[in-house]
Specification:
CATH superfamily of the largest domain: PG0816-like
Distance between the termini: 35 Å
Order of helices and strands: HHHHHHH
Number of helices: 7
Largest sheet: none
Structural class: mainly alpha
Helix content: 55-70%
Radius of gyration: 18 Å
CATH architecture of the largest domain: Orthogonal Bundle
Shape: elongated
Strand content: under 5%
CATH topology of the largest domain: Helicase, Ruva Protein, domain 3
Number of domains: 2
CATH class of the largest domain: Mainly Alpha
């Protein structure tokens, strides 16, 4: 990745590091989305839209399909359901490690940017909580 990243590329990179760490090294994704967002912003300004409207158009391009984060969902489950047992400093690391093991659970659902607002979200949350408990078992009961 070039040393100087555009605002949109940097914004996406920061978002990916926080919500989709497995994608944060995908330089092609970051470059293509960042460039497309920049083009969307420029086109909106040229068409007389306000800065806020242009930024909204750019963000739609930049974050489309990425707003729901399986990683953040697992982090939330670990914090809320296992927070007393798990070392808080390691929760994000644990989430990153168990996420690949949860692919089958996530694959049962049609994930979208607005998935958290659906009735299925609660079902996924419950299923993930059980799967995490099975995966980690006594590991979380040990000081980490």
């Amino acid at each position: 990745m070039p040393q100087e990243l555009s605002y949109f590329r940097l914004s996406l990179l920061s978002f990916l590091r926080d919500s989709h760490p497995n994608l944060a090294t995908d330089t092609n994704l970051i470059a293509s989305r960042g460039d497309a967002a920049s083009e969307a912003y420029s086109a909106a300004i040229k068409n007389g839209r306000s800065h806020d409207q242009a930024a909204e158009a750019a963000n739609e391009v930049l974050y489309s399909g990425l707003l729901f984060s399986p990683y953040r969902t697992v982090v939330q489950i670990l914090r809320e359901g296992f927070g007393k047992e798990a070392n808080p400093a390691l929760i994000e690391e644990i989430a990153f490690e168990v996420l690949p093991e949860l692919k089958d659970v996530f694959s049962k659902y049609e994930l979208s940017d607005s998935f958290e607002t659906t009735e299925e979200y609660d079902q996924l949350y419950t299923e993930l909580t059980g799967a995490i408990q099975i995966l980690l078992g006594d590991v979380l009961l040990q000081p980490l």
